[in-house]
């Protein structure tokens, strides 16, 4: 479900087989990305291409990842954020919690 690929100074994580980050997968996403941040020492970008919805547990997981990355002086960014997901980020008041790149 979660794939990692190296690109220069960062690692890009992408989700396959889902269009949502919700309660079913948020804990797995959080666990795998946090493990990768702690072990690799690299900056990480979560590619949200194809993701059209994130629920409250998904946002909680993403916020926890961002906080850990910040505490370890690493960048955690979201890439290929759709307009629908960007609208959700703004609605839940987390726009300033993430570095965000649109499609």
Q: Can you say what the CATH homologous superfamily is?
A: STAS domain
Strand order of the largest sheet: 1-2-4-6-7
Number of domains: 1
What's the CATH topology name?
Answer: Transcription Regulator spoIIAA
Distance between the termini: 21 Å
Q: Structural class per helix/strand content?
A: alpha/beta
* Oligomeric status: single chain
Question: What is the architecture at the second tier of CATH?
Answer: 2-Layer Sandwich
Summarize this structure as a short list of keywords or feature phrases.
103 residues; alpha/beta; Transcription Regulator spoIIAA; five-stranded mixed β-sheet; two-stranded parallel sheet; 3 helices; 30% strand; globular; STAS_dom; Anti-sigma factor antagonist; STAS_dom_sf; anti-sigma factor antagonist activity
Describe the protein in words.
By secondary structure, this protein is an alpha/beta fold. It has a single domain, classed as STAS domain (Transcription Regulator spoIIAA), CATH 3.30.750. Helix content is 39%, strand content 30%. It has three helices and seven strands. The chain has helices at residues 26-40, 56-71, 83-91; strands spanning 2-7, 10-15, 20-21, 43-47, 53-54, 76-81, 99-102. The chain is globular. It comes from Ancylomarina longa.
Give a concise summary.
This protein has 3 helices and 7 strands, in the order E-E-E-H-E-E-H-E-H-E. With 103 residues, the chain is α/β, with parallel strands linked by helices.
